[in-house]
Design goal:
By secondary structure, the protein is of the alpha+beta class. It is about 20% helix and about 10% strand.
Amino acid sequence: MELTEPAIDAEGPCQACGACCSYSQNWPRFTTEDDAALDLIPGKFVNQRQSGMRCDGDRCSALSGRIGVKTSCAIYAVRPEVCRTCMPGDVECAMARRRHGLPALA
């Protein structure tokens, strides 16, 4: 995979990545959110079972941009708790980046 821009941005590595948001059609799933928090997420981004985010293949429907180049989340301010706990460079981040052929974050 050839990238046109660096896959690691020291200022905001997540905006230059997006791999964790394109890992599995079963992720992100809702875990600890209450009904009030879930009501803030636009219905078009929620799966039919109401158990997590709707995905297009393995990619969260709220993710835009190109994995490893530049991405953003359409619902960043109200994203699920599981999205909030994924941190740049943690084990889950490294797994997702590896799946997309991206180097681990230092």
